[in-house]
């Protein structure tokens, strides 16, 4: 089963100074339980591609289907609801600084419609899942980078998504912390059957956890396939 199916995706940014074809005809399928990496330099179009997968950007052309639902055909409330099935984590974590760790996770539960009565137990469950139960009452400023990303992951999993999008999730972290976060992602992939689509400029990340990958350049995939095949090529 293909959890993510993208066909003929295009996105152009227009401004007074001209236009940039950020994504210029991308086809992609990601099977259930896969960890798919999109590797490329800055400006290749990775972030735009990822933001089209959860429709933070609306593509100019092409289709995006996640978990059997064509998102490109939806608007308004139906799109917002479908989006709950897609979690996202960010390079700079994007936490609410005025809320505790538990508060950040609780907020995500609230936004995605978990009834108040279930929230407390669910916060505890999510923090347990990412190994952060001890820090429930800390504020983001009191956490290490790795701990902040664990909060980001707990929050992304609030609505029990089947897909997790990762936007350079380890790029702001040192190598040791990067490894611990990648191990956590692999663990979640295996335990929850979570399908992961990640973008990165680091080959080491792709080698470490991806089952398949694509190389992106100037808005297109120049290579893609199973990781074993890609690494074997000259
Ligand atoms: P990457 O994530 O690989 O660094 P991006 O998707 O961020 O690539 O950017 C692809 C291209 O689109 C770049 O040329 C970038 O400058 C341009 N771009 C990205 N976002 C915008 C935007 N909001 N407005 C105009 N141009 C943009
Ligand atoms: P904030 O002030 O940062 O918004 P709150 O203390 O108001 O955080 O808590 C927000 C939510 O998180 C509430 O639903 C609360 O029940 C839950 N919560 C707070 N502390 C914990 C904890 N240690 N374990 C589990 N849930 C917690």
From TrEMBL:
Signal peptide: none
Domain spans labelled ABC transporter: 4-234
Entry GO MF terms: ATP binding
Superkingdom classification of source: Bacteria
TM segment ranges: none
Keywords in alphabetical order: Amino-acid transport, ATP-binding, Cell membrane, Membrane, Nucleotide-binding, Translocase, Transport
Protein name, per record: Methionine import ATP-binding protein MetN
Organism: Actinoplanes lobatus
Whole sequence portion shown: 12 to 245 of 336
